[in-house]
Amino acid sequence: MMARDLVLFLGAGFSLDAGLPLMRDFSELSVKTQPGLESRRGYVGELLREAKHIYGEFRNWCMSSGLGGFDWNNVEDVFGVAEVLHKTGIERLTLGHRELPIAYIIQNIELWIWKTYHQLQIKRNEPPRALPVDRDPYKKLFLMLRDLNLAYRTTVVTTNYDIVVEYECFLHGILCGYPTKWDSNFSAGYGSDLFVDKSQLNPPGPIVSKLHGSINFFKGIGGMSRGIAIAADLGDGRDIGSSRGSFFKNEPAVVAVGAIELLHERYGRKASPAILPPSYAKLRREPWLTDMWRTALSALTDAREVIFIGYSLPPSDGFIRSLLAGVAARRSHTTPLNVTVIDCSKDVRKRYVKMFGAIKPCRHLKFADAIKTEIPRVLERLAHL
Questions:
Q1: Strands 338-342 and 305-309, how do they pair?
Q2: End-to-end CA distance of the chain
Q3: Which has the least CB within 10 A, 50, 51, 310, 319?
Q4: Is 217 helix (H, G, I), strand (E, B) or coil?
């Protein structure tokens, strides 16, 4: 078996065609994409409305600083402030008329992010929502990985929380895997078969390294050897027991409405999504996160090709920049890395040129356009090596 020599480095722009908001548009679109939240009944409705309220109030509190250079519509900026307060020992904060623990505020921010990104609008027969959906680019990409025999040579490194990659792998007969230990008996739903390979070492499809957590990763659940519980069961179990039945049988999903309630019933209120802020993740704190970053470092060090799709290389993301610098230093006496950047922003491309020098392609493209031109050229070239 050949080495894994292709890295797909995916940012939020990769999931845009799947109907998921960019990080910079999160604050406004997280509300617009969930029009039925206010009418949701029961425990889950109350929980999620509280998360929405806390996120909005904390965002307003951040805006009251009056400082420039921040984008308070960007969830990364908002989340980062909360994490800094927490890590520097600030225990409580007054929001509106309530004094709340910082840990509680962070828990609600994580839950609001989870609620927003768990939506998988590219699902077959999924009703239309607030953002447009284009399934075709994903179909073309994953069919190429499969048909060119590149799936097992691929490592996906992603800053995204969603499971678009996992879903598309499953849909096209590819079994991906995560590079950390996890209990395959754990479930956040009612499914039995798995959509992710149980082997952490060498799955038959891509290794998926999620640098900031994932909507199907959960923490606060006892007995997990690496501090993480991963839901990888098929069938999302929505509306179980109702006359409508489950919307999606044998398809990857986190239970859209009931996962948190189900986890709280099984494991207590400490169970929550493992969602980490991009700029302040502490690798030593989370062994499973160390596994993800170590895998990313190794994959980038050994790769022939890396294709960046929809990752803006923001100056504030010091962790990623440090990762890339470490990779470049380790590769200084080896074959140069071929870098292709797929992004429609000229400013983003300038950042990549400043870091890497010559990159391909020489013009800016959206993912939906690049999948017809530049990406096939890279993949076909690699397939013949």
A1: parallel
A2: 13
A3: 50
A4: strand
Paired with 252 in beta bridges are 234
What is the overall mean pLDDT for the chain?
Answer: 84
Check residue 10 and give left, alpha or beta (phi > 0: left; psi -120 to 50: alpha): beta
**Which tens digits make up the pLDDT trace of 48-79?**
899 999 999 999 999 999 988 888 998 888 99
Whether the predicted pLDDT of 248 surpasses 90 = no
C-alpha to C-alpha distance for 200 and 181, rounded to whole angstroms: 6
Both tokens assigned to 46: 């109350």
User: Rounded to whole angstroms, what are the CA distances from 309 to 76, 153, 325, 336?
Assistant: 19, 18, 19, 20
Instruction: List, in sequence order, the alpha helices (H) in 232-361.
Output: 259-267, 287-302, 318-330, 346-356
| Residue predicted with more confidence, 161 or 1 | 161
Q: Is the pTM of this model over 0.85?
A: yes
Helix (H) or strand (E) holding 139: helix 136-147
- Cβ(123)–Cβ(251) under 8 Å? yes
Task: For the chain, state the CA radius of gyration.
Answer: 20
Closest CA to 275 of 63, 108, 86, 93: 108
- For residues 299 and 209, is the Cβ–Cβ distance under 8 A? yes
What is the DSSP track for 64-78? TT--SS--TTSHHHH
Q: How far is it, in rounded angstroms, from Cα 203 to Cα 199?
A: 6
Strands 196-197, 176-177: parallel, antiparallel or unpaired by DSSP?
Answer: parallel
Percent composition of the chain: helix, strand, coil (DSSP 3-state, to 5)? 40, 15, 45
Quote the CA–CA distance of 176 and 163 in Å, as a whole number: 11
Whether the CB-CB separation of 91 and 74 falls below 8 Å is answered with no
The strand ranges marked E within 196-350 are 196-197, 207-210, 213-219, 229-230, 272-275, 305-309, 338-342
Burial annotation 102-132 (CB, 10 A radius, 16+ → b, else e): beebbbbbbbbbbbbbbbbbbbeeeeeeebe
Confidence of residue 375 (pLDDT cuts 50, 70, 90): very high
Query: Residues, the chain, total?
Result: 385
Calpha distance 73→168 (Å, rounded): 29
Element (H, E) at 380: helix 374-383
